[in-house]
Structures are given as structure tokens and as C-alpha cells.
Amino acid sequence: MITIPAQPDPFRFDPRRTALVMIDMQRDFIEPGGFGATLGNDVSLLAPVVDAAAALVAWCRALGIWVIHTKECHRPDLSDCPPAKLRRGKPSLRIGDPGVMGRILIDGEPGADFVPALAPAPGDLVIAKPGKGAFYATVLEDELKARHITHLIFGGVTTEVCVQTTMREANDRGFECAIVEEATGSYFPEFKDSALAMIRAQGGIVGWTMKLADMP
Ligand code: TIU
């Protein structure tokens, strides 16, 4: 068993029953010209997450923790993209439009791929997801149950959108969840702080928050 200082109290887990869920570390969210930028966001705010997320992956690999990467993306024919999602907001380019990294948020295009530092390794699981939550319309729950996983560690982007949604989905399915502060980020720093506060409030209503600096 491993015990990490965390809030609201220490997070204790068996690495053999634990998986890392690294959310959407894709060029479309982190690099200029991708989905995040077309929504009007300053993607440079996510740059510091890359090294921390890579360090978290390395920490987990060293302990034998199973590494899972999710990517938010859609089929080329957009058949898995609800019209409401397609219509949302006033982006400069919409999902499926051609951008500087290929078609925006389309599976198989360069923009939908992971940033190089977060490239999956053999044995990792990659989950392509059409929604914000990684349990919606994917095999994630079946895969976790097949491996008898009980505890999940989270990182990735963005904290209050896909990371928090997935963590809440996981919490409702009975997984013990912890998020690593340095390894997640938002286009809105105040939203990241609020999301972390919401997760750990009320005795850990959604789960634990912990710091990479406290993970030896
Ligand atoms: N826009 C935003 O903050 N996030 C997303 O659209 N997707 C994820 O969080 N991955």
C-alpha cells in the first residue's frame, strides 16, 4: 500500500488496483490553432501542465500503475458529435473544420493526437471519447472492472471540464479518486482552484486532491 499526503486526508492505494487516467493531453487543447484556441482561449496557460503530467506518468509507471490516456475527438463523419455540441458557442472554427493541425477535434488528425511528451507507451490504454466525461459512450468502465481497478489518479486538461466531469463519473461508479494538482490545468486559473476546492470539500465529496511534490 502507498499513502500520499492529500486533502481532505491521506490517499491510500494499492498500485496493483490503481490506474492513472490522463485526460485529453492533446495538441488540440495545448497548442496554438487547435480546438481550445478556436474557442477563444489562451492555450499558453496549459503549457506548465505538460512537464508535470509527464512526470506523473513516469511516477506511475515506476510503481507499475496502469496508465490510461483519454482523447476527446469525433469520427470524421461527425456521427458521434451531437448537434448541440457542434453548435455551441461562437468559435472561429467548429469541430470538423480544417485547421492548422488538420480537422478540429477529429480522431486521426494531428491536432487530436497527444502532445509528444504524453505519448502512450505499449501496454497503456487509449480511450477515444466523444463527450467531456470519459465514461460516456466508451469501454472505460468495462476495462477498469476487468483489471479489478478500485482507485484512480487523475491528471490532464481541462480541470473543470473533462477532468472534473470524468472524476465525478468515476466517483458515482464507486472508484476512489484523487487528482494531482500540478498535473492538471485550465484556461481559467480561478476555475481550476474552484474545481479542486469542490472536489475535496465536504470530506472529499468527489475525492482527494494531492500534489506531485508530495509524491516521492
Ligand atoms: N474547453 C475546455 O475547457 N475543455 C474541453 O472542451 N475539453 C476538455 O476539457 N478536454
UniProtKB/TrEMBL annotation:
<feature type="domain" description="Isochorismatase-like">
    <location>
        <begin position="18"/>
        <end position="206"/>
    </location>
</feature>
<protein>
    <submittedName>
        <fullName>Cysteine hydrolase</fullName>
    </submittedName>
</protein>
<dbReference type="GO" id="GO:0016787">
    <property type="term" value="F:hydrolase activity"/>
</dbReference>
<keyword id="KW-0378">Hydrolase</keyword>
<dbReference type="InterPro" id="IPR000868">
    <property type="entry name" value="Isochorismatase-like_dom"/>
</dbReference>
<dbReference type="Pfam" id="PF00857">
    <property type="entry name" value="Isochorismatase"/>
</dbReference>
<dbReference type="InterPro" id="IPR050272">
    <property type="entry name" value="Isochorismatase-like_hydrls"/>
</dbReference>
<dbReference type="InterPro" id="IPR036380">
    <property type="entry name" value="Isochorismatase-like_sf"/>
</dbReference>
